[in-house]
Amino acid sequence: MGWGFVVVLLTVAVVCGRANSIGANWGTQASHPLPPDTVVRMLRENGIQKVKLFDAEYDTLRALGKSGIEVMVGIPNEMLSTLASSLKAAEKWVAKNVSTHISTNNVNIRYVAVGNEPFLSSYNGSYLNTTFPALRNIQTALTKADLQNQVKVTCPLNADVYETSTTLPSGGDFRADIRDLMITIVKFLSENGCPFTVNIYPFISLYNDDKFPLDYAFFDGGVSKPVSDGGTLYSNEFDANYDTLVHALEKNGFGNMQIIVGEIGWPTGGDKNANVENAKKFNQGFVDHISGGKGTPKRPEPIDAYLFSLIDEDAKSIQPGYFERHWGIFTYDGLPKYALNLGTTNTGALIQAKEVNYEMKKWCVMKPNVRLDDPQVAASVSLACSRGDCSGLGVGTSCGKLDGKDNVSYAFNSYYQIHDQEDKACKFSGISEVTKTDPSTGTCRFPIMILPYYGGAASHGQVFFLPLLMAAAIAMLSIF
Ligand SMILES: *[C@@H]1O[C@H](CO)[C@@H](O)[C@H](O)[C@H]1NC(C)=O
Ligand SMILES: *[C@@H]1O[C@H](CO)[C@@H](O)[C@H](O)[C@H]1NC(C)=O
Ligand SMILES: *[C@@H]1O[C@H](CO)[C@@H](O)[C@H](O)[C@H]1NC(C)=O
Ligand SMILES: *[C@@H]1O[C@H](CO)[C@@H](O)[C@H](O)[C@H]1NC(C)=O
């Protein structure tokens, strides 16, 4: 009897430990994504037991097979209308992207994320009519495949689907213009035992509003005046935002609904508040804040969350801001950016990716004798930045202190590396040259690219790569 009790306790501890451990978002919009097997090994060595994906790319899922890692597969917004209008298409999607991987590859798929923040106001309502029917069709398809207990549907939404009428969490309700739709979706999720998934970003609150109190974005209790909501004290934005959702759900009769924080994190570059110190402070603060299952004032229960994100993605659209390419807790090549203790490794630090294959140790830089006012410079830089990635050059970020010439070299090198160090990719009107001396300075790393991986993930990256070149070119032209 005594032993039985111990075993039960242990089982409970193990089960809860797993469910509560922090997950990570694994996106692949990179010019040179790490091979999926390398990433899966890195996830395992770091004790990260849950990943959220943005699609159902075959090689990524194959690599996750037999790892035991819990997987949330994603359906991109562009597929919603097809899946909404055809149950057959939804059945095919489930057969190919869920059933096969579970039965033949042994992938631990637990969720299907239908769409990604489809109600963002910047989408102008494009997915308002298709999200719910797609969600319903995927649920029907899962049920037909007899997977409805094992695999749950959800829909990752931006926190702007709810608002508060009073500035306090207790005033929370769904946004007026989509309230009926939200209630339809929540009711459906509830009936099927599925969670509500929300992405919460204090960094964006700060980015959008210079007057946003900086310490309220973090978790270190540095807030001199906590916000009182009828006596309940809030000293950070995350708790207040999460509880606004809890109130919105409660107000509409779904007070017990399971919530997943689909994305949370802080970028290290591309904005004055995006640097290693702040990212470490926020992510470590969040991990510590939710450790031990403490929860929020309104819902003091374990929080289920996925960090955004695992690895930097140099081909993400920079339309929302340059910071978009700098969310990773790891660099593009799997190096930890800072000490982050997830409580899952023996050392208490992140463990870098193993067996990463790099290009040669050479860089493309501006020739030392060329002057900055040379008429070729501006045009060459804008070409380099249109194809390369100059998003790390902004003020306050790790490469923000480069001088004018180093700025130009940074742009040239980025173009050269993204083109796999081809000779012709370092021929900027006679003003550039290849060097074997690392031009990196202090906190600013001039990267060497990793060898291209010719799996499906790479081609996926390229799909996103081309359309954003124009935006990058225009943006960088105005800087130089
Ligand atoms: C499976 O997912 C992939 C990647 O998201 C997608 O391209 C493909 O169309 C899906 N398959 C089906 C049958 O819908
Ligand atoms: C939304 O509308 C704005 C303003 O009309 C436009 O600039 C933008 O391209 C539109 N976005 C989408 C995704 O349609
Ligand atoms: C959604 O449906 C409404 C009502 O039928 C229609 O007015 C609107 O144009 C549709 N929106 C889109 C993006 O298709
Ligand atoms: C280098 O580039 C960054 C970003 O484009 C810019 O803010 C900075 O002023 C530049 N530095 C010099 C010395 O030109």
UniProtKB/TrEMBL annotation:
<keyword id="KW-0812">Transmembrane</keyword>
<keyword id="KW-1133">Transmembrane helix</keyword>
<keyword id="KW-0611">Plant defense</keyword>
<keyword id="KW-1015">Disulfide bond</keyword>
<keyword id="KW-1003">Cell membrane</keyword>
<keyword id="KW-0378">Hydrolase</keyword>
<dbReference type="GO" id="GO:0042973">
    <property type="term" value="F:glucan endo-1,3-beta-D-glucosidase activity"/>
</dbReference>
<dbReference type="GO" id="GO:0005886">
    <property type="term" value="C:plasma membrane"/>
</dbReference>
<dbReference type="InterPro" id="IPR044965">
    <property type="entry name" value="Glyco_hydro_17_plant"/>
</dbReference>
<keyword id="KW-0336">GPI-anchor</keyword>
<dbReference type="GO" id="GO:0005975">
    <property type="term" value="P:carbohydrate metabolic process"/>
</dbReference>
<dbReference type="InterPro" id="IPR017853">
    <property type="entry name" value="GH"/>
</dbReference>
<dbReference type="GO" id="GO:0098552">
    <property type="term" value="C:side of membrane"/>
</dbReference>
<keyword id="KW-0732">Signal</keyword>
<dbReference type="Pfam" id="PF00332">
    <property type="entry name" value="Glyco_hydro_17"/>
</dbReference>
<comment type="similarity">
    <text>Belongs to the glycosyl hydrolase 17 family.</text>
</comment>
<feature type="transmembrane region" description="Helical">
    <location>
        <begin position="453"/>
        <end position="477"/>
    </location>
</feature>
<feature type="signal peptide">
    <location>
        <begin position="1"/>
        <end position="19"/>
    </location>
</feature>
<keyword id="KW-0326">Glycosidase</keyword>
<dbReference type="InterPro" id="IPR012946">
    <property type="entry name" value="X8"/>
</dbReference>
<dbReference type="GO" id="GO:0006952">
    <property type="term" value="P:defense response"/>
</dbReference>
<keyword id="KW-0325">Glycoprotein</keyword>
<feature type="domain" description="X8">
    <location>
        <begin position="362"/>
        <end position="446"/>
    </location>
</feature>
<dbReference type="Pfam" id="PF07983">
    <property type="entry name" value="X8"/>
</dbReference>
<dbReference type="InterPro" id="IPR000490">
    <property type="entry name" value="Glyco_hydro_17"/>
</dbReference>
<keyword id="KW-0449">Lipoprotein</keyword>
<keyword id="KW-0472">Membrane</keyword>
<protein>
    <recommendedName>
        <fullName>glucan endo-1,3-beta-D-glucosidase</fullName>
        <ecNumber>3.2.1.39</ecNumber>
    </recommendedName>
</protein>
